[in-house]
Amino acid sequence: MSIEALTLLFFGSLLFFLLLGLPLAFVLGGVSVVFLYFTWGFDSFYMVASQIWGTMESFTLVAIPLFVFMAMILERTGVARDLYRMMHLWCGGLRGGLALGTLGICAVFAAMVGISGAAVVAMGTIALPSMLERGYDKSMALGVINTGGGWGILIPPSILMILYALITGVSVGKMFAAGIMPGVLLMVLTAIYIIVRCHLQPELAPALPKEDRGTWPEKFRALRAVLLPIGVVVMVLGSIIGGITTPTEAAAMGVLGALISAAVYRQFKWSILKEAAIRTFKLTGMIMWILFAAHAFSAAYQSMGAQELIEGLMNMVPGGPWGIIIAMMVIVFLLAMVLDPVGIMLITLPVFMPIVESLGFDPIWFGILFVINMEIGYMTPPFGFNLFYLKGIVPPSITMKDIYKSIIPFVIVEIIGIILIMIFPEIATWLPDLFF
Fold it and tell me: What are the residue boundaries of the TRAP C4-dicarboxylate transport system permease DctM subunit domain, all occurrences included (predicted)?
């Protein structure tokens, strides 16, 4: 069978079983094992086992359950409630102030937990009712929570960045450092959009009346709410960037910070620890199976010689190296609408990374573009996770159509951010070059 027909059959089988609704890990691993057997025979399984063993020996892998456990604890501490109260007092007097404050809280949460859903659920529960009650346009309120919640996978620490590093072989520390400036850029761009839009259409997000803005003593007392989150961020990111710890050791520091936060907020209970541990075990188990499947997929993909075929097809894309990068971004953007981010990483990175490196592009810079596309995938229909997190907590009067419509301008802002990072790669590469 020709390589073209074999490649078509391979990817066609993956798509067919995914559309049937079977779990990604078993589809990816199962199809890959079948193709390995019929192309290379039984001996090919030793190659897969050898690759998996090498990954399981990676010290970096330990960071995943630690960061997940940290996120599960912080979700239940009450940090988000106090942060929102502080933002409410300091920003409420501005047009769109509550929306800007919500963005800031989402960024702080992103720098603590490393996953997307935590900020969406917290702000959807706390900030959304407050904004709607004070006359905010529902599209503005929903869009802010949706886009800010997605920053959890871009602003370090990020579980997806760790997986990207494991799959591609780049440094986790460099990926974390590279995510800081793009995260700030997206936050600034989104804030500018809110300020300009609210200036042109004040009715979308009115300023709070004076009696709701709080006194100066109340505002200064509320600043205490940021001390613990800043402490956790410094413990994690500060220790990595300062060269004190590895990312894995920093994850352990983050767990310690989360436990201290739980104790300060009087939420340090056996029931919370038990629930967080069980959820961590479940999520970590799923990630491990997906990593096993990734190695089987990579081995099958390479054994068929499909890499040379894909590289040949990519070289036919007009526009030279930049045309190829843009084509990759479009492919990832479209896939992010229908597949989960981990699945997209496993399917595309073994295909894309050799091409990216052969073209002379920085894999760290490409990784940031890739992660931002995954972030957009969290907020775009039909299967964006943040959309369903929001639908589960919004009032019955808000429909799925309302949520879908709310994300359009914010997706455009994120795409502008990607374009700026492509034009000015230093936004992503400056900090890694500086610290590493």
Answer: 11-427
